[in-house]
UniProtKB/TrEMBL annotation:
This is HTH hxlR-type domain-containing protein. It comes from the Bacteria. Keywords: DNA-binding, Transcription, Transcription regulation. PROSITE patterns: HTH_HXLR. GO terms for molecular function: DNA binding. InterPro entries: HTH_HxlR (IPR002577), WH-like_DNA-bd_sf (IPR036388), WH_DNA-bd_sf (IPR036390).
Length: 109
């Protein structure tokens, strides 16, 4: 039988896991950039903002891809091959909660 305390513990565990999923320094910025649609690597470098290096963007995208937030499409017919990054359904589903977090921040700081 599940008690109220058990449910609360499960909720906090889920909340903590979600925060850890987006806790990378550039993860939220990449999610926000990809919210407008698929982008290639150099586009992301421009839209994510100053301060992110090529190497860090690659590392961030790989981590987001492995956690299922971002997918990529490779177009081998281009020379060099074109790679576009996009939000998966899982990544897209984080946008509304992140907007709520931003709203909370605006109201409480």
């Amino acid at each position: 039988m599940t008690t109220e305390l058990d449910v609360a513990d499960a909720d906090w565990h889920a909340a903590r896991a979600t925060i850890e999923l987006v806790a990378g320094k550039w993860t939220v910025a990449v999610l926000g950039s990809l919210a407008t649609g698929p982008q290639r690597h150099n586009e992301l470098l421009r839209t994510v903002g100053s301060g992110i290096s090529d190497r860090v963007l690659i590392r961030t995208l790989r981590a987001m891809e492995s956690s299922g937030l971002v997918g990529r499409t490779v177009r081998a017919e281009l020379s060099p091959p074109g790679v576009s990054y996009f939000l998966t359904d899982r990544g897209d589903s984080l946008l509304a909660p992140l907007r709520q977090c931003a709203r909370w921040w605006t109201l409480n700081t």
